[in-house]
């Protein structure tokens, strides 16, 4: 008997966000399956942070549709947010609350108190915050604040987790434990999307990659598909793939002096939005599959101009 292919965990259609005359997201389209770890890659100013904030409902686009686990984020916001967790690159906390109180606040807000005591201790011990659980948030270092943000992301139930540079301020051991937690999240059927510049770890860890530039999707797929699309040999690594796609999509101005990631670079001419990426059979994965049928992986490559 044929197994049913589960629907996408995330769907994005014609997503557009402008700041003045500059399109940070320009008719961006994307479909991603459940039970997957996805690396979001692109140069400074490509639109990665704006994309993640839009998916999290923190930035309102001019047009486009975002569906989280089948629920429209615009018209079914409460239902969509029930399946969504977001870990920002710069976390903001209530100064009067302690580490454990922040986690309890999130758990209560999402009706996740049933196993809170056990789950919060497991998370805090995993990320080295157990001894600091009664400290107020303003006493935490930058790295410890990032760990707390990650713990808050995992303390509540979700099907899609968005992480913006989650390992940028973490020590090596904490990065390893983050990847362990994300691997468990995938095995439970979750889709995790995270931006990072840790190439070696991403290459060995992610099921697929989303390459973006100038607010558009350049390519989506696993390493084998991306190598073939970029006309690279089988031994080419993620760094080589990335450079090949970025050189092929060259022609941007230099970053502006203000250093803002999503407004620094502007296209010389308005780009044309790509079609909705098609869904194709997935490449083989090293990770053990979940109990449900294996999802389809959306392999897509922006047509050459």
Structure description:
By secondary structure, the chain is an alpha/beta fold. The chain folds into two domains: 10-83 and 159-301, Rossmann fold; 94-157, no CATH class. Helix content is 30%, strand content 21%. It has nine helices and eleven strands. The chain has helices at 48-55, 77-81, 99-109, 116-126, 142-155, 172-187, 199-205, 223-229, 238-248; strands at 10-19, 22-32, 36-41, 63-68, 71-72, 84-87, 160-164, 191-195, 208-213, 216-221, 300-301. The strands form two sheets. A seven-stranded mixed sheet has the order 6-7-8-3-9-10-11, sandwiched between helices. A four-stranded antiparallel sheet has the order 2-1-4-5. Strand 1 (10-19) and strand 2 form a beta hairpin. Helix 3 (99-109) runs parallel beside helix 5 and helix 4 (116-126) packs antiparallel against helix 5 (142-155). The radius of gyration is 19 Å and the shape is globular.
Describe how the helices and strands are arranged:
Blueprint: E1 10-19, E2 22-32, E3 36-41, H1 48-55, E4 63-68, E5 71-72, H2 77-81, E6 84-87, H3 99-109, H4 116-126, H5 142-155, E7 160-164, H6 172-187, E8 191-195, H7 199-205, E9 208-213, E10 216-221, H8 223-229, H9 238-248, E11 300-301
Parallel strand pairs: 3-8, 3-9, 6-7, 7-8
Antiparallel strand pairs: 1-2, 1-4, 4-5, 9-10, 10-11
Brief account:
This protein is an alpha/beta fold and 305 residues long. Helix content is 30%, strand content 21%.
